[in-house]
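U., I forgot to send this yesterday:
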Amino acid sequence: MGFIKNILYSVSNKGMLSLVKKQSIFPYYHIINDVNVKHIKHLYQFKNVQQFEKDIDILLQHYKPLNPEIFINSSEKMKIPKNHFLLTFDDGLSEVFDIIAPILKKNNISGIFFINPNFIDNKNSLFKHDISIIIDTLKSSKHSEDSLTKIKRLLNIESTSSLDQLISSIKKTKHADKGVLKTIANILDVDIPYYINNQKPYLSKSAIKEMMNMGFYFGGHTMSHPRLAELDLEEQTEEVINSIHWLKSNFGIDYSFFAFPFWDKGVSKKLIERIFQYDDKAFVFGNSGIKKDIHSRIIQRFSLEDPSKETEKRIVTENLYKFYNKVIGKYKIRRN
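Result:
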C-alpha cells in the first residue's frame, strides 16, 4: 500500500465495516497455498488456505456473493447491486483449480479467473515467475564469482555490486528481456523449462473446462502478461483481444471478460475503445481500488492478498481511500 493508504489503514478499525459495506467490492488474488512456491515467493506475499477461508467467512458475513452471470448480456443501464462482492483471480495459476475452486464451490460462491493463454498447459512461463525462480537460486545456493560477474555484466551493473543489488537489478527485468533471463538461468544452471514441466504452476485446458462446468467464469489477462505501457497500441491490442478470443475459440463461451496485468494506470482511452469495438458487451477489470472509470463496463478492484493486513481493515481502508480521492478530485479515472 502507498503512504496515504497506510495512514488510513492505521486509523481504520473492523467496526467501521458496517458503515461502508453498502459499496459492492471486487477483491482479487493470484494464489492461495500453504507452500511458499519458488515462482512466487520473491514477488509478493500471499495467503494460506486457513487465511483465505477466513476471508470468505468475513465476506459472507458482511456481503452477498455476486454471480458473474449478471454481466453477461447485460444492458447498458445495468447497475451493480449494493452490498455484494465478486472474487477474481489473476494469472491462471494451478492453485485456482486445486485449492481455490473447491473452497468457493463449498461456499456456493462463483468467481472470474483471468488467464494468459501462452502459459496454459505449462508450455511456457511468465517472465516474472522466471525472475522469482532465479532469485531463489541466487539466495539458496552458492555461485562462483565468475558466474556472478557474467550476470552483472549482462545487466550493465558494477562488478562490485552486492548480491542484494544484483537481485534488485534482476527484479527490474522487463517482459521484452525474457531472453536475458534465459541467459542468466543458463549461467546459474537453472533449468526453468524443467521446473515448469515438473511443478506445472499453470492451469491446463482440461482444468479450465472442468471449472467452467462447475459454474466458474474465465477472462483474458493478455497472452503473455507484459506491462502494457512497454508496448505500442497495436501490440497492446493484440495481447488483449487475442487473450479474450482464445477463450472463445477454445471453449465456445459467448462472453468477454478481461483484466489488465500489473495495473491499469496509464491505459489509454484508445485501447479501451478497441476492446469495446471487439465486443460492446465486454466487461473490463482494473486494479485501481474503488474508483469510477470512463466506462460503466470497467470495474475497479483491490487486492486482499497481503496476509499481513487484516481483511476487515483492508476493506475499510479502500472505502476511506475512495472518500479521500473524492475530496482531492481523483475518484474519477481520466484516460488520455
